[in-house]
Amino acid sequence: MIIAIDGPAAAGKGTLARRLAEHFGFAYLDTGSLYRAVGLAVLRAGKSPTDVVAATEISVDLDRRLFSDPDLRAERTGNAASAVAAIPEVRYNLLEFQRKFARTPPDDKKGAVLDGRDVGTVVCPDADLKLFVTAGPHVRARRRFLEIEGRGEAADFEEILTDVRARDERDMNRADAPLKPAEDALLLDTSELDIDAVFLRAVALVEERLKPQ
Ligand code: CDP
């Protein structure tokens, strides 16, 4: 079974995807971390995240050690990720890894949960269940603010809100694989739902799909 969870920055898709994977014993792939790793490597190489040649070269042979790098979750890395993610060559180079993970999940798991921006539309258009998780920009900026503070780092709400809006704008308006719900995705607005409520709703949807037809 393949579960695709897409949505904008800080909508809560990562937490939901991780909990679903754990609950059903499926493998989990945070596809955003691939784009973050490319963004981080480009910054470390002293290049601009809009440098097509540099970002493409890095995405061909991505250094896996970056996935556990402490700077992977930094806001600066998220913004760089959103810029490299607009480059079609980078998207193409990351596609096969994601599809393979979904088709043959590691450790012989019986299913995979992938979260990102284009999992239901481009990476796994045949996914068994597609969720589009969203929330208003203020709610998402507030969640990101608390997440950063929780790590003991300094956070500025207005700055985060501006970043969230800029990232939405870039992710939704790029030509290649823009952020949008797949036609057959179920929408989950988490503005007024806490993570437990979202999780329970999603578990019920997965169980429905797992029932023999
Ligand atoms: O956690 P957050 O939602 O802030 O970001 P993320 O999921 O780690 O993704 C970082 C950036 O990668 C996004 O802003 C997207 O531009 C890009 N991305 C993408 O284009 N396609 C995906 N499937 C996943 C992420």
Description of the molecule:
It is a single chain. The chain is of the alpha/beta class. It contains nine helices and five strands, in the order βαβααααβαβααβα. The protein has a five-stranded parallel sheet, with helices on both faces. Helix 1 crosses helix 9 (195-210). The longest helix is centred in the last third of the chain and has 17 residues, at 157-173. 42% of the residues are buried. The mean pLDDT is 94. The structure holds cytidine-5'-diphosphate (CDP). Cytidine-5'-diphosphate is lined by residues 9-10, 14, 31-32, 35-36, 78, 81-82, 85, 116-119, 167, 171.
Q: If strands are numbered along the chain, what order do they take across the biggest sheet?
A: 2-3-1-4-5
Counted beta strands? 5
Based on Cα principal axes, name the global outline.
Answer: globular
Helical segment count: 9
Oligomer: single chain
C-alpha end-to-end distance: 14 Å
Which hetero ligands occur in this complex? cytidine-5'-diphosphate
Uncertain runs are none
* N-to-C series of helices and strands: EHEHHHHEHEHHEH
Radius of gyration: 17 Å
- Give the DSSP E fraction (strand runs of 2 or more residues): 5-15%
- Biggest sheet features: 5 strands, parallel
